[in-house]
Amino acid sequence: MQQSKAALEIGGTFIQVGIGTKTDNKWTLNNKKTFDTRDPEDTLLDLVTYLQQFEFDSIQIASFGPLCLNKDDPQFGSITSTPKLKWQNFPIATRLSQALKKPFAIDTDVNACAMAEFMLGNHNVRQSLAYITIGTGVGVGIIVNGQCVHGMLHPEGGHILVAKQQEDKDFKGVCAFHGDCLEGLCTNVAIAKRLNCPITELPNISDDHPIWELVGFYLAEACQNILYLLSIEKIVLGGGVMNRKLLYPIIDKHLRRLVNKYVEIPENYIVEPQVEDVGLIGALLLQ
Ligand SMILES: [Zn+2]
């Protein structure tokens, strides 16, 4: 029998929805649609109205966070302490589930992306993979022992600290919570602020600009920490900032220099994403 699931990738700016159908062990997405992320009640109405048209067995959600992922907690499936105030403590998964009368599965958008790359990307990994997205925020999804990592919460690797570079010492960073954490130093907002230009100007900045070495160095530090802590087999980097393809060899170079052969890093350790519609496909793979 054909299996159908509704997939949602909930971002702070827009929400992607699609209906996934599994045939011969392969998921295909149809009826894809993008909605603006409005106030939670309005957004919920948009999503329910759209999804009611289709037949499916469950609702699969990859969402921005932080999220409550503890199934024993009454808040399970809620977005918790987001700076988007109206979304704070909004039980998005439960409300969708009640309105559409279907069960749900939920994880962070980056854990879902990590799962999609782990299961469907051609990365030659056995049990672990990290997915880092660098855009208007920095998110880190982690697969260990073939599972998305959960615990007290879920990984929030965008907020780890990295060693600040001398030439960047006066930049205070842009993270609303921590200033110069990884996210505070590497998002497109942080890059634009250092260059004193709007984000829309960033594609016009030359590859020769020293900002890319700096951002690449910080991301290499993050990769180094992930490698040491979790012995991750492969790190996939995506998101808008990584459209600057030059960053891949820069990160690789700095990572190898920092690690200094203490562990042997395989070729192609830092790679681009391979799965199309990675967030929605990742949502479909959540248990
Ligand atoms: Zn932070």
Please outline what is shown here.
By secondary structure, this protein is α/β, with parallel strands linked by helices.
Task: Write down the Rg.
Answer: 19 Å
From the 3D structure, determine the CATH topology of the largest domain.
Answer: Nucleotidyltransferase, domain 5
Query: In CATH's first tier, which class of the largest domain applies?
Result: Alpha Beta
- Helix tally? 8
**In angstroms, what separates the terminal alpha carbons?**
19 Å
Q: Ranges with pLDDT <50 over ≥5 residues?
A: none
Strand order of the biggest β-sheet: 3-2-1-4-5
Portion in strands: 15-25%
Small molecules in complex: zinc ion
Helical fraction equals 25-40%
Structural class: alpha/beta
List the helices and strands in order: EEEHEHEHEEEHHHEHEH
What number is the mean pLDDT?
96
Shape: globular
GO molecular function, one term: metal ion binding
EC number: 2.7.1.4
Cofactor: Mg(2+)
InterPro entries: ATPase_NBD, Carb_Metab_Reg_Kinase/Isom, ROK, ROK_cs
Report on this model:
The protein is an alpha/beta fold and 287 residues long. The chain has two domains: 3-108 and 278-285, ATPase, nucleotide binding domain (Nucleotidyltransferase, domain 5); 112-271, 2-Layer Sandwich (Nucleotidyltransferase, domain 5), CATH 3.30.420.40. It contains eight helices and ten strands. The protein has a five-stranded mixed sheet, with helices on both faces. A hairpin with a 2-residue loop joins strand 7 (138-144) and strand 8 (147-148). Helix 1 packs parallel to helix 2, helix 3 (109-120) crosses helix 8 and helix 6 (211-230) crosses helix 7. The longest helix has 20 residues, at 211-230. The site of zinc ion has 7 residues, from helix 4.
